[in-house]
UniProtKB/TrEMBL annotation:
NCBIfam families reported in the protein's UniProt record: uL30_euk
GO molecular function, one term: RNA binding
Domain Large ribosomal subunit protein uL30 N-terminal eukaryotes span(s) in chain numbering: 65-136
Taxonomic lineage of the native organism: Eukaryota, Viridiplantae, Streptophyta, Embryophyta, Tracheophyta
Pfam families the record matches: Ribosomal_L30, Ribosomal_L30_N
Full protein name: Uncharacterized protein
Top-rank taxon, per record: Eukaryota
Amino acid sequence: MLTLRVGLARSVRPRVLTYAHHRENPNFQSSHNLPRYTAHSLSILRSFIVLFLLIFMGEEVKAIVPESVLKKRKREEGWALAKKQELEAARKKRTESRKLIFKRAKQYAKEYDQQEKELIRLKREAKLKGGFYVDPEAKLLFIIRIRGINAMHPKTRKILQLLRLRQIFNGVFIKVNKATINMLHRVEPYVTYGYPNLKSVRELIYKRGYGKLNKQRIALTDNSIIEQALGKYGIISTEDLIHEIITVGPHFKEANNFLWPFKLKAPLGGLKKKRNHYVEGGDAGNRENYINELIRRMN
């Protein structure tokens, strides 16, 4: 194998012929006496002739490529292949995730519809028997802070901090149990609460929902944010989050801690009397299902 370094020859500086040369041979024309571009063209022609002869004679011509260039090419090819595989895997995962989210959303809609039909059936059955239907004890509460810190006991302030109600018109979901009920009795003059329905939970999360990711407050504009924080609990979309909250599922604590406290606006039409209880014509305390009407005014 013949290895040849092929390059363009440098243009030769023209040689100035003296009068003696012309006198001895006046018809002589040297390539050195030709214009600069003509000498350059002759050099290129010589190179092509050499290449042609080598190829014609059966010799293989191989250009010399620096080793650093070869390593760079190999490295870039590896990077391009890895990136292509990564994009393909991400696209496949995104497609499968979208199908799963759609399937779960249909399943949740069917479940909510069945619950509503069952509730109507039970109410009709109780009415036919001459009685009345009593709703089961609620498992979910939504609390809204309506008063500031004036003349507040330190223990009351600490409970509000534990409930994450640090500002006026902040709202949070909590699970109903003995401990939370005792805490609510202590802070009742400063908050109002009730039992939110599915519509209220969905509107709150979709309109004013923010998540806590890496200690940062991030708007829930993409399912990938929820999947990144709660994917290990099987919650990968907004509908999964809503279902976990409204049903107070096994991972309610993680889902609720992920949600940043809702920052609501002042209620349309204002509040009546913040210092009085709701049953006395005020705003504080338990308003049961009427919390949904207040959420509409503040959302």
